[in-house]
Fold this protein.
Amino acid sequence: MTDQTRVVIFDTTLRDGEQSPGATMSHSEKLEIAELLDDMGVDIIEAGFPIASDGDFEAVSEVARRSKQAVICGLARANFRDIDRCWEAVKHARRPRIHTFIGTSPLHRAIPNLTMDEMADRIHDTVTHARNLCDNVQWSPMDATRTEWDYLARVVEIAIKAGATTINIPDTVGYTAPRESADLIRRLIETVPGADEVIFATHCHNDLGMATANALAAVEGGARQIECTINGLGERAGNTALEEVVMALKVRHDIMPWTTGVDTTKLMHISRRVSTVSGFPVQYNKAIVGKNAFAHESGIHQDGMLKNAETFEIMRPEDVGLSETNIVMGKHSGRAALRAKLKELGFDLADNQLNDVFVRFKALADRKKEVFEDDLIALMRDQETGDAHDRIKVKFLRVICGTEAPQSADLILEIDGKELRTTSQGDGPVDATFNAVKALFPHEARLQLYQVHAVTEGTDAQATVSVRMEEEGRIATGQAADTDTVVASAKAYVNALNRLLVRRQKSDPDSDVKTVSYKDAG
Ligand code: KIV
Ligand code: ZN
């Protein structure tokens, strides 16, 4: 690379992010996120792990076929079968890349039970093989930050000689700290023969909350590719957040003189989309894209802001794609106004889609005095999570709750086109409702997480509910929004169940999900 001030942004939301338990995205969701990343100016999109499943392979292939500017990368372990499969998927891209990796630290070397020399040979052979297929090859020594220095330098040299064009140095377990991160990259660049002919990349996990600082420090040390994910999605505590490194480089260009090709005004929209499709809500006080990131609550702050926005703001909301006013809509707002508002929020709807949303918007506006942007986003999310192909649908719910136990729920579900009704009791209205779902559709899935958020202020606020369920190692998340928290809970639970059924069928295509018994309690 000639321009030493340019930092390449490598997004791995669709691979490392999607690996996060419960964050699995559907095929069409992956295509949509890839398109948003490409349009936003991300340089490289790691679209998946093609050998992992047929679904992953199809998704990477399709992302590759549809790619515009971005390099499309697939992940492969250090064996020929993985690499061949990866190439079969990414080769459709205008600019394909194979990313192959192996764990080089003592703990990781013990897993394939290879000696240091055997692993070095394996690295040579697999990188050579990848390079024979593709002229853009990235190699990663997984757990690099816990690999012995001499061995790390030795294998990096081997990978460069075998033809790797990018060397990624992962902090797989989020163990390093900023100074060490910078020093490691600097030392590799200074000492490994051939280092000046490749790009060094940094890939940091956030276990100690230092991923962004470590990635930026690595750039100080000479790395010119940052690997990151939208909203910092990723295994355990996640990866470096794309929005954080990109905005840090933009806002503090005075002390970090590197640029990226990312259009930052698209950050907010993609953050919301990734949150929706992954089912991982964005923490309210998350830097850059959190709901409160630009909110000024206290009197002193508000006073200062009114006099001069720079008093408390180091970046403008518009820089990250947040419109300045949270314009209110009401029941008198028409179709055109709704379409325009949704477009501004990043939802470009066809006429028939708009009709459906409009009906729901009117129903919401009847129940709520003011409909805020966040309400519309919640409405769109809810619209998208419910799918015409869902096997289970909530048709009716009435709960009795209050100080006198027992609380009970009278529920009608449509299951495979047939309406079933039951009344169940429980420890509170939500428990009673979930018991009713279970009575109508018996299942072994375990509820792992139940979360409620108020979308806006006020007692008439919509609630968004997230539910995570687990069944034999398969995890699915469901979300729903409604001004009635119990209705939102029922829909979110059913949404998670529907996703679990799809997942069950995918992982065991021979199992006939239709044979899952449910009792006609009507
Ligand atoms: O964290 C890690 O080490 C990885 C590698 C596969 C690059 O994600
Ligand atoms: Zn990782």
Observations:
- Residues 294-319 form one domain.
